[in-house]
Amino acid sequence: MAVKNQLAQSAEAPMFLLLAGLSGLVLPLLLILPVYAFGYSEVLEELAKAVAVFLFLCPVAERKTRVLGAVVLGGVFGLSESCLYFSQIFQFGDIHIFWERLAFTLPMHVLTAVALTVPTFWGRRWLILGVILAIFFHLGFNYFAATSL
Prior knowledge:
By secondary structure, the protein is mainly α. It contains 7 helices and no strands.
């Protein structure tokens, strides 16, 4: 019975990876209005990714697949968010803004998604530790990005 359950979980893993990627694509769009209304983009983004981790990555039994899902989630989220800022190219007339944003924010979002996921290896209740770590990393990134300009 355990082997059959493990095979069923490994067969469902690609579906969960696809859902993690799709959530990474859609979440930046869904967060435009809440971030505009409330601010605190770091907190809102990491909470949204935490929901995706809870729904789509925690059910996956294999740790390696969970980490891969986190990389997909963070990578697609960072790419999607950078594309939303594509309009800045037209405002400032410099395509380097897009490439710099992509080069720096994409790895940061992958890091925060992995930081959200790894504590769930010890159980779902540890996701709160991942949320705290991810918000800390995101705030630190934004602080250093703002002070280096």
